[in-house]
Amino acid sequence: MSQQFSSYISYNIGYINFYMIDYRDSAKRMTNETAGELALRRIREDLISGALPPGSKIKLEQARDRYSVSVSTLREILSRLTTENLVIAEGQRGFEVSPASRRELLELADLRVLLECHAIGLSFTAGDLDWEARLVSAHHKLSAVERSLLGGDPSRTLEWVRYDWEFHQAMVSACNSATLMATLSSVFDRFLRYHLLAQSFRGKPVVDDHKRLFELAMNRDLAGACAMLTKHVQNGAAHVLKSGRIP
């Protein structure tokens, strides 16, 4: 299964952008994005998906043509992305994609657990029937895709990326804090970047984790959900490191 996943996602890595646009920015796509906003979104997606590899130089002239914006706009966008640690500014030498490292992965894992557990607690307190319905729907879609992946069908890998996000987002969607959601989203994306670099699916353990998280969330068991989430994230980080793709 892991080998099939690796081959499929290596071939299709550039197309992850389609799914990220679809599930992350569906509301924004209903409005008229400026060229700069569109370029920011596309560059960010390319950084997370690995289409712009860690440690690579970002050549402004090539990027200008690829993202259809001026060099000055590109500089503004890349400067903004330095605040998320996705890009490094090198002074007069331009910009570089942030490298991937074991240390950052483990820091992101810890930060994700801290933020997501807090958001889950708020959601468990405030969540209503609509919140439960979102969670049920998200888990149903995720589990359907995971059954296909476990059955040896890697063609739904990109859907899994989408529905994994939707499931975790649904759990925290009643936290009533836009700032917390935005911060968690940024950390989730940076953590996802490492999973996409590792190019492998954990298989049944991650499916079991999601099922248990769903059950605990429906029962509003905060202690159990946070313990399960901690295990889920830490095992995910360990799996990425085991892949040998992160220095």
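The record above closes out task 2.4. Task 2.5 opens with a second protein, given below.
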Amino acid sequence: MNIASKKFSLVYYLEIGDQNCEKHGILKLENPNQEILPTNSLVIIFPAVEALGIL
């Protein structure tokens, strides 16, 4: 796999704040559908896509 020719996105959660609420700050990924509840110092790297959206 030629990883150097691909683009990636990186998300780093330095400090997540209060998760004791009704609407948590969940990171939602598509294809495959995943929901990630972040923790402090979490690093997530995933393939970048042309169409991005924030819900």
